Amino acid sequence: MSWTAPGDGPLRIALLTYSTKARGGVVATLCLAEALARAGHRVDVWTLARGGDGGFFRPVEAGVTVRAVPFPDRAGESVGDRVLRSIEVLGAAFRGHHPAAGGDDAAGGYDVVHAQDCISANAAPDCIRTVHHLDAFTTPELVACHERALRRPYAHVCVAAGGAAARAAGGGSAPRVTPNGGAAPRCAAAAGPAGAAPRARWRGRLGRYVLAVGGIEPRKGTADLVEAMSLLRGRLPAGEPVPPLVVAGGETLFDYRDYRARVLARAAELGVGPVLLGPVDHAELPSLVAAAAVFAFPSVKEGFGLAALEALAAGVPVVASDLPVLREVFAGAVRFADGPAELAAGLAASLAAPDPARRAAGLTLAARHSWDAAAAAHADLYRGLLADRRPAASPARP
């Protein structure tokens, strides 16, 4: 079947992700899909609808078609078996729609298939893959999934140069750097006059608080944050109470119960009682962020830092891990910390007094990262890759 490069016309794009929950990669997938659709492209987002979910954690803009593949829970299923079943179920549904992936429906053909994680990159046999960060898994099925998702895609995208360098060190195709957008308008509105009442409700409930988003898990550095909150007692002025640590989010495919239990036990031992909100409604999250006294971002691995960018857009000071990729994205706008002691010092300094220079830098940085710009960069990347590929290896145009 012949194929003609689409030139400057609209592209038919499939974006694939592994979940409907509010995780960083999922958030980025939806925002990119919506921006591509606003630019005139035809965009389908494929996802596994886990546990009876009917769709994503938030409404998706018109112009994006959501193809949610049912994925019922199975009692007692191991993480490894769940990963293998995720690949099988998503892959079977996608092949049934996309002729280049083995399906029979010519109307389902895509110019570009773009996987956003290792599970969806295994489900789609011929794809571009975004590497948000490199994980070190121990579950054998996940290790194999991760390795295949680095080898098999014909092109890789990273959202920061630091991530691209890490990916290049692992071999394979040289990744393209295409930065994320951000939620600056939404978060800025939550910090403005119109958001005063929602912010007051959070502060009335929680007081003055330190916020972390992403739940309790190893990659988010929660154990270090608990230690830092304990050290904070000795760094605040005499008589000033230590603000509570508020943790939002936590939806994940993986089983972190043992880590969570250890972290909570240590928190109890130190007298640091975190307030665990769990997943927060999409409409309420900006005001929760905007009402925080300081945003803690002690991740041990990140590809970009969307949550920190949203906090900066709301004018909230951020204390982040001293990772090369975070310095690349956030230099001059956040305080960096290496370990619990520096994290405690950064939190104390942020609580003590405003930092107008960092705040201004953060607002400027957040405003500079738009999803429309990210979509334009992705479309240019897609067209370049399509032009470079041999016609015989390219999917049929619908």
Structure, explained:
With 398 residues, this protein is α/β, with parallel strands linked by helices. It has 2 domains: 12-181 and 371-393, Rossmann fold (3-Layer(aba) Sandwich), CATH 3.40.50; 184-368, Glycogen Phosphorylase B (Rossmann fold, 3-Layer(aba) Sandwich). It contains 15 helices and 13 strands. It has helices spanning 24-38, 79-97, 118-123, 140-151, 161-169, 184-191, 196-206, 222-231, 257-270, 285-290, 306-313, 324-330, 340-352, 356-368, 371-388; strands at residues 12-16, 42-50, 64-71, 112-115, 128-130, 155-158, 176-177, 210-213, 245-248, 275-278, 294-297, 318-321, 335-337. The strands form 2 sheets. The chain has a 7-stranded parallel sheet with strand order 3-2-1-4-5-6-7. A 6-stranded parallel sheet has the order 10-9-8-11-12-13, with helices on both faces. Helix 8 (222-231) links the parallel strand 8 (210-213) and strand 9 (245-248). The chain is globular, with a radius of gyration of 21 Å. The termini are close together. Residues 1-5, 102-107 and 392-398 have low confidence and may be disordered.
Give the helices and strands, then pairings:
Elements: E1 12-16, H1 24-38, E2 42-50, E3 64-71, H2 79-97, E4 112-115, H3 118-123, E5 128-130, H4 140-151, E6 155-158, H5 161-169, E7 176-177, H6 184-191, H7 196-206, E8 210-213, H8 222-231, E9 245-248, H9 257-270, E10 275-278, H10 285-290, E11 294-297, H11 306-313, E12 318-321, H12 324-330, E13 335-337, H13 340-352, H14 356-368, H15 371-388
Helix pairs in contact: 1-15, 2-4, 6-11, 8-9, 8-13, 11-14
